[in-house]
Amino acid sequence: MNDTGKVLFAALVGAAAGAIAGVLLAPASGKETRQKLNDKAEELGDNVKDFAEKSKEKYNEFKEAAKEKS
After folding, report:
1. Are 12 and 55 in contact (CB under 8 A)?
2. Mean pLDDT of 34-42
3. CA distances from 24 to 28, 44, 57, 65, 69 (A)
4. Which SS3 state, helix, strand or coil, does residue 10 take?
5. Res. 1 pLDDT band, cuts 50 70 90
6. From residue 59, how far is each of 4, 17, 26, 27, 49 by CA, in Å?
7. Domains identified in the chain, total number
8. Which of 2, 7, 28, 36 is buried most deeply by CB count within 10 Å?
9. For residues 22 and 37, is the Cβ–Cβ distance under 8 A?
């Protein structure tokens, strides 16, 4: 993973941690908190999938470029 990928991944993890902390510390009922956590977990899962797809695309581009130079 290159530096840009590491920074993006760290930003995603940091944003997720902040969102979860905010949900847990906000005054709400247990049901509302569980729903918010579920929503944030789904959002994080979507972000991770997007990151993985973009990383795979970049890897394939790099691999193809390396083949062309060989």
Report:
1. no
2. 86
3. 9, 16, 35, 46, 52
4. helix
5. low
6. 13, 27, 40, 44, 15
7. 1
8. 36
9. no
The 3-state DSSP class for residue 62 equals helix
Mean pLDDT of 45-66: 88
Averaged pLDDT for residues 4-17: 81
Residue 51 near residue 8, CB atoms below 8 Å: yes
Calculate mean pLDDT across residues 44-69. Answer: 88
Half-sphere CA count of 58, side-chain side, radius 13 A:
11
33, 11, 30: which is closest to 21 by C-alpha?
33
pLDDT of 60 above 70: yes
Containing structural domain, residue 56: 3-69
Q: In this structure, which amino acid lies at residue 49?
A: K
Token reading at 16: 């997720």
